[in-house]
User: Fold this.
Amino acid sequence: MDSRLGSADGVHLADKVQIAAKILVVGHFAVGKTTFIGTLSEIPPLRTEETMTQAGAEIDDLKGVRGKTTTTVAMDFGRLTLSDRLVLYLFGTPGQQRFVQVWEDMTRGALGALILVDPERLKDSFAVMDLVEKYGISYAIAVNYFDGSPSRSEAELREALDLLPETPVVTCDARDEKSSAQALVALVRYLQSRTRQE
Amino acid sequence: MTTPQEPDRDDIETLESGELVRPYVIINGRGFSDGNRFDLVTLVTASADSEQRWGQLDPEMRGVVDLCDGGYLSVAEIAGHLGLPIGIVKVLLVDLAEQGYILTRAPIPPAQLADIKVLQEVLDGLQARFG
Assistant:
């Protein structure tokens, strides 16, 4: 953790910060999103929970609200002050299609998304990739290598995840600051190349 | 992460709000959509004279103003520190802004966020910080 650009009290932002940017760190359950965010954040990661009324609960309308199913979706996030005027927030949430409000909130104004994948559970990443694409968010894939994960060739990964040729694929260890930062750097470079093209 | 809830419990929101009051009560029964002008990363601070009028506020609103008194924080951080759902915090912020207790940094339009300058600044910042 580095507080050179942070505020004196470690809680609030430095006085001159004007711009808040947002990058999403998404992936399936237990893929390492919270670890990744915690590794890079300058503040202890925070969690917020949103109460959701599940879609499809209308069938119970005759019984009133007591019949509805509520559930919570948790969002973990961290903060990185990157210059005198700019702060970057990293938001992580699981990819469940039904949490529309959370996804709308998260994706509004987001620069891009880093999709963390577990090479042993590639199929579990499909749902979250669908969501990121549906919301039109540019993304890079970061393969989070756990201890003992067998290496898989990039070509195999690309084929399994059906990636566009230009989509970056990087490997990282979410517990390691340097490799996690490199994954973000790869994403930002890709976003730059896309912005230039437009 | 999801927690399946028992379908016939009506007091689940009470547990989730971290307070012994249902969020619906905290926001005086107002609709959640009122908070849409606040983004997750809208930066908020307490206004200069908020402390003098602090006593007139509900406890939850006082909590927000108190937290924001030392400088700017994002909406998401306010929710995280206070243990309140984002939707509730947004509605509280709308009221507090209307009454002049809080100030926000002007939101950056999404078009400008994708600006090549912002991306370059993010890149430079990451590289300066992590080498």
Chain A touches chain B through 67 residues (CB under 8 Å). The first strand of chain A starts at residue 19 and ends at 27. The domain at 19-197 of chain A is CATH 3.40.50.300 (Rossmann fold).
